[in-house]
Task: structure prediction
Amino acid sequence: MGKPNDKKQKVQQNVADPVPAPPDVLPSMSASPPETAAPRSRRRRAKAKAPSVPDASSLNWLLHEAYLKRNFSVASALCDEQLSLHHGRSEQALFVKAMVCRQQGNIEESLELFKKAMYLNPHNPNNAKQVARTLFLLSRFHSAIEVYDQILAANVRDWHVLHNRAVCLSFIGRLDDAVEEMTKALSMHKHDASFMQLGKYCLMQGRVHDAIAVFTEALMFSPENADLFTMLGILHLNLGETPKAFDLFGRALTYNPKDTKAILGAGSVIQECGDYDVALRKYRVPAATAPDSAETWNNIGMCFYGLGKEVAAISCLKHAAYLNPFEWKTQFNLGLAHMKVRQYASAFQFLSAASNFEPDFADTYMLLGSALLYLDDAANARAAFEKATSLAPTDPTIALNYAIALYADQDFAGAAAKLAIYEANRSPSASDDAEKELQQAADKLSAAIQLGDVAMQ
Result:
């Protein structure tokens, strides 16, 4: 009786055991799960699994988006959360947090974060470039150059690296190397910023014509860049090529009607032609858009000076001196305006400041000598005229004023000698009013010297 029961139990046991499904066959989503104990045990095992840690780069897009939208507080909080979750080993979080710190002015902290990112992934050149950029902002130019050298040694061809390395070289005085490096950057990529820097390096070396050639070449690749037209206009204006400079300023204003430097350049050309009212109308735009521009107020003041409004001129020039107290041209113009209103003591103060800021401008010492002559200091007046003569020995205006000073000091022989220098170097045709006024003063002085005892009025 025991055997049949044993067989029945074995048959029932075989029927109860489920047949395992092949591993590559997925269960149908419409079929109901069998009511067996095995699935329940599998569900219990799934609940017992440890939670998986998300990938360190899973939220990189969110960090990048917050930084680009300039939500720096959100970006910094997300970076801190990522760094806490991954124990400080998230490269993107370190990079974005470093960028945020640099934008907020925490340069030292930014450098440390970039170094950590560079340590995590030393093969990423972006980390090294940002380390070098941060060192540059900290004025550690030699260290920045070393980092750029490491990047170039890794065969990374990037014009940004060559450009920034050239900028660092220029700051430590290696202009020749900076020009060479910037030329390499331009051979790799023709960018406006590289052309501008190369032109500036040529100007720093005194190669004005090479700078003009660089800016002219830059216009071939960027024909609508107003800054390039303005730079070329300023260079041609300094060379005395006024018509070409005025044309370049006009082309710059075509692409950027509110370019302050171009307006100032065009206004100065108009001002030299004596159209002071037109120049003042030009200066309305920079006076409104850049009210803190010392150059604008200086030019406005000299327009009023040309119109004979000395009080308004002095007011504008003093405002320019307040905005930029170390600009020698403003100090010189203030001295000139005070000479016009016969305030010789004030003129002496401003002209002395101008001579300290720019000791190689002869006209400053000429006006100083005239002011000292009116202040009854003939000895120092003669010393000032001697300095002016040493800087510009053939200038007719200086020679004539020196002759007047010597005549006032009863030195008739010296006055005659300086008057002879004026006659030898003056313009043969007195075309404008200023030259006519000088010639009249020279004729009057010549007659006074011949008489010997006639005072000049």
